[in-house]
Amino acid sequence: MGKVVMYSSVSVDGFVADEKDQPGPLFEWLTSGEVPLDASGALTVSQTSYDYTRPYWDQIGATVVGRHVFDMTDGWDGKPPGGVDHVVVVTHRSAPEGWDPEAPFHFVDGVEAAVAKAQELAGDRIVEVAAGDVGGQVFAAGLVDEVRMDLVPVVFGSGKRYFGSVEAQHLLADPDEVIAGNRVLHLRFRVRR
């Protein structure tokens, strides 16, 4: 079974979106270089960011997101983002009316069930959990093995927190990686158990 990784781009004050659910400049690093990050060519990063991000993306077998993110993105038109094989959506509602049942999206009630379904789908590959409210719930439940952050030099002041509503203290190990790219600092921590 692959490890569970909580991930997102984040402001230096710990937000993944502003009060209006907008990422603002959090994704500018994805267009701040010369190296194409994916086949579309729309994402171009520094060589350093490519060397860090591309191998990670290639290891992801399933991504867990909340229904709010799914709805905001219109379900990525039924095509998982970043070439991920499967998306598991944490929701109390069923798939949207007219949703293509062949699309590799799975609608699951509860974070524990979502992580279990994602692990089943991913096999020995990584299960990525989107940071924010659902990610914070998965983290608080003790199901996250690693935290990855793409730290962007911006202060939001308020908004949607990286760890959602987690309020208890949780210790992470010393950083396994700290890598500077254009407009981003890539950080990776193991979760202490």
UniProtKB/TrEMBL annotation:
SUPFAM superfamilies: Dihydrofolate reductase-like
Gene3D superfamilies: Dihydrofolate Reductase, subunit A
Bacterial bifunctional deaminase-reductase C-terminal domain segment(s): 3-170
InterPro entries: DHFR-like_dom_sf, RibDG_C
Superkingdom field: Bacteria
UniProt-recorded name of the protein: Dihydrofolate reductase family protein
Organism encoding this protein: Plantactinospora siamensis
